Amino acid sequence: MEFQHELVIPDEGLPFKFFLFEGSQGNYVREKHWHTSIEIFAVMEGSLTFYLNDEKHPLKAGELMIINSNEVHSIDSPEENHTAVLQIPLKQFEDYFTAHRFIRFAANEQETDSQLWRLIREMYKLYGKRGTGYEFKIRSFYYDVLYLLVNHYRLDEAGEQEVRHSRRLDALARITSYMREHYQEELKLTDVANMFGYSDAYLSRMFQKYANVNFKTYLQDIRMTYAYRELLNSDKTISQIAMDNGFSSSRAFTREFQKRYGILPSEVEREK
């Protein structure tokens, strides 16, 4: 399988991740990938094309696309566009799962799609301004989105083949969820493999096959994501940030940071 698992971490202080699609300037392709979160793309301006399970879905302004958990998809963005992306952790829907920790959402009537699109547009406006108390208002729109999804988009049944496909990816998703919850600890491949009943070799192959990276790289991705957030939003020292996020030393953190971002952590601190 030639696709990657995308790491999705909610925005700080909010139960979801919300952002402007990175292909807004055009001439951009996001290769095949998957994630456990539910994802909604809502095009504000311009257009782009989704490939969902190899089916082509062109989108223009005023339209949206719902990506289910563990659905492999890619995106072609040749022209400029403004597209809001809402990523919802799967656990938000625990009370509505079918068997096997499974839930699916499907396209709905145009009137309902328009209603959902307008809610995300309002979230987009609030998120851009981030005025006083915006977190309260954006949450209200977010919960309206969840209400629409479970009442108008949720499928009560799913095909057996679809469930089997999701199970294969869900096995790795449970492991990566555990890693996100314990990334500050010393996590070793052997310990994680034993915890989930796998051999070291099998777990290594699972990461390479379904996440397209090895165990260590995936763990470093998690640690760096949280460390970078702290670097931007806290007054902690670089050494403290390194230790709090699972790095063995500030030197190891600095080395990894420079390799990924091309600058030193201290340069980010000076720009705050």
UniProtKB/TrEMBL annotation:
UniProt superkingdom:
Bacteria
Q: What GO terms are given for molecular function?
A: DNA-binding transcription factor activity; sequence-specific DNA binding
> What SUPFAM superfamilies does this protein map onto?
Homeodomain-like, Regulatory protein AraC
- Is Transcription regulation included in the keywords of this UniProt record? yes
Taking every annotated instance into account, which residue ranges of this chain make up the domain HTH araC/xylS-type?
173-271
* Keywords, in A-Z order: DNA-binding, Transcription, Transcription regulation
The keyword DNA-binding belongs to this UniProt entry's keyword annotation = yes
For this protein, the record's PANTHER family field holds: ARAC-FAMILY TRANSCRIPTIONAL REGULATOR, HTH-TYPE TRANSCRIPTIONAL REGULATOR EXSA
State the name under which the record lists this protein. Answer: Transcriptional regulator, AraC family
